[in-house]
Design goal:
5 strands, alpha+beta, two-stranded antiparallel ribbon, three-stranded antiparallel beta sheet, 4 helices
Length: 160
């Protein structure tokens, strides 16, 4: 009985001095179907990342711009596939050297591919910038501590 009172008193005392509880840093890794997001070692869904990015004006700006660039890259990839099909179909059906129509389809296919690659890299860079900004906002708050798991059981855990 006495030990439980002491433990309860210690936990109450520690909880009075808890500065705040912070979320852990976000990381993103490329995968076959896009990007996979982790909060420390726990995989989180893209919807959760969207909510975290909406919390701050700067991260939300970069995150929305990244989505726009990804949409442009997807549209350009679709255009590239269509013009490549038309160019190959036109070259296959023609007899003799390629004419101007074939070269226009081929040039537009390469142009759309360049646009798709450029906007895809820009989207990834903006996502990275947004996540780094989010992580920087967590670190700007300085030292925080809370009650959590440590090597010897439960104790006060400091985050820098």
């Amino acid at each position: 009985m006495k030990i439980s009172k002491i433990l309860l008193t210690c936990l109450t005392f520690c909880s009075l001095y808890v500065n705040k509880t912070v979320a852990q840093e976000l990381t993103m890794f490329p995968s076959f179907a896009g990007y996979v997001y982790y909060q420390d070692d726990i995989k989180i869904k893209k919807a959760e990342v969207n909510e975290l990015m909406k919390a701050n004006e700067i991260t939300n700006f970069h995150w929305k711009k990244s989505k726009k660039h990804q949409n442009i890259a997807t549209l350009a990839l679709g255009g590239q596939l269509v013009t490549a099909f038309l160019a190959l179909n036109s070259l296959n059906n023609s007899f003799g050297p390629a004419d101007n129509k074939d070269l226009i389809f081929l040039a537009s296919s390469f142009g759309a591919a360049g646009i798709a690659i450029g906007f895809s890299f820009s989207s990834a860079k903006l996502k990275k910038k947004s996540i780094l900004g989010y992580n920087k906002l967590l670190k700007e708050d300085g030292l925080s501590y809370h009650i959590g798991n440590c090597n010897n059981g439960i104790g006060i855990v400091c985050n820098f």
